[in-house]
Amino acid sequence: MPLASLVNEPNPISMTAPVRPVRFVHRGAIVEVPAVPPTRTVLEWLREDARCPGTKEGCAEGDCGACTVVLGELQPDGSLSLSPVNACIQFLPTLDGKALYAVEDVAGPQAPHPAQQALVDCHGSQCGFCTPGFVMSLWACYERHQAAGTVPTRQQLADDLSGNLCRCTGYRPILDAGQRMFEATPQPLDRKPVAEALRALQAESPLAAAPGDTAGFHAPRTLADFAALRLARPQARLLAGSTDIGLWVNKQFRELGELLYIGNVAELRRIDTTADHIEIGAAATLEAAWQALVAEWPALRDVWLRFASLPIRLAGTMGGNVANGSPIGDSAPVLIALGAQIVLRRGDAVRAMPLEDFYVDYMKNRLDSGEFVQSLRVPRLGGRAQAVRAYKISKRFDCDISAVCAALAIELQGAAGSERIASVRLAFGGMAATVRRARQAEAALHGQPWTEASLQAAMAALALDFKPLSDMRASSTYRLQVAQNLIKRFWFETRPQGPLPEHAVSVWSREEVL
């Protein structure tokens, strides 16, 4: 495979000097970038250096989808995975050892790809600014289903396009195009040469900053090396998917200093399932983590699909979302309701604690200097009759921040007709400075029959647990009322006598909605 070298002019303010260049595959060649600021985005490189202006900048925060590109990554089994991500918040050094696909790579105007031709035929483009992002999301969907020999439903297409929010043409023509592209002659990507190039890149040494560089980029590949680096450089900023940190750069213009990238540590990307628990590595993607949780608790599927968007879930990590500690993050309430532990590591020392004990105050936690999140440990059902639900309340259904997120788990014991609540965990986000359990409401329920009278007691007790704030997303009164109503919905769905079926509580139970 040919070697291309695209050299950036040094930036005297934020330039870093890796020991070796950043190398990745783009446009059929191995691209080499010898000097790059650690926070230079993939979008900036594409438009300004590679002269590929098809990818657009809209929101610069990973919401609108105009900047969607696809990353190719070599998997442990040797296959090539393709993931749509937001180029505006992905830092260029994280491309090292991967393949980058932008809209110019899909097909040319003389022979458009089925996704492009379908958008034309179905009138799925109007001003065209957002169209390249739609093309890339549709192309990633097309490739995934071509490889599996399947065709997505209309709802699956809508879920895949959740990160492309510009809809000046309307939703219907774009979904029509998504279905139409599978009717054309198949045009799959030849993955073999790309996988071979990535194998060659993986044989190289890990990317690292020059000794003494305080604004550099380190990307170790083993857990031992990562732990040693973190211990030696406790002031370094930990970087996972940059779905949050990317906004610090784009919106707040913050200098991040030295970056320690977790995304290349294979041990931390694993998700292991034992008889007792699910162990989610800190670098496992949100998409993979939610998939593992939903396999154990199918009722969590809705909150999985409503967590940000597919490109964000394929870039961000559940470990990063939890470590960030935002009171409106959607992972922590669910994990706390499930009784998860957070596993922390400092050098060779490892300790674990209940996740609910990890948070001290707003955006403050119990991490010691040089310590990092190694994994999240979630106890499995193990035959327990546990009912779990999670509800997300936001102004927009797709790709929006929660006003309230509730995760509720209850276990009933006893003979039919005389069941009592043996255990209960009610966790809420958006109700306090941290994600917290509703201890007073739990106390009102524990040991009681799961009846409407117990429900009313729990709803009243919730007002003693939380005094939420008012902000742009919701008022204090609304937050408390909706949180109480979510406990009521939970009762309707899980009460021993006459629980409501899924189709009675979901607006998505009817296909014709779309």
Structural features, described:
The chain is built from 17 helices and 20 strands. With 514 residues, the protein is α+β, with helices and mostly antiparallel strands. The chain has three domains: 1-107 and 187-269, Beta-grasp domain (Ubiquitin-like (UB roll), Roll); 114-183, DNA polymerase, domain 1; 270-503, Enolase-like, domain 1. The strands form five sheets. It has a six-stranded mixed β-sheet with strand order 1-3-2-6-4-5. The longest helix is centred in the C-terminal third of the chain and has 19 residues, at 476-494. The radius of gyration is 24 Å and the shape is globular. Mean pLDDT is 92; it is low at 1-18.
Write the layout of secondary structure elements.
Elements: E1 3-5, E2 22-26, E3 29-33, H1 42-49, E4 68-74, E5 80-86, E6 99-101, H2 103-106, H3 114-121, H4 131-148, H5 154-160, H6 171-180, H7 192-202, E7 217-218, H8 223-232, E8 237-239, H9 245-250, E9 259-261, E10 271-273, E11 277-281, H10 286-296, H11 301-305, H12 310-315, H13 318-324, H14 331-337, E12 341-346, E13 349-354, E14 359-361, E15 364-365, E16 372-379, E17 386-393, E18 404-413, E19 420-429, E20 436-437, H15 439-445, H16 452-465, H17 476-494
Parallel strand pairs: 1-3, 2-6, 7-9, 8-9
Antiparallel strand pairs: 2-3, 4-5, 4-6, 10-11, 11-16, 12-13, 12-16, 14-15, 17-18, 18-19, 19-20
Supply the key terms.
514 residues, alpha+beta, Ubiquitin-like (UB roll), DNA polymerase, domain 1, Enolase-like, domain 1, 6-stranded mixed sheet, 5-stranded antiparallel sheet, 17 helices
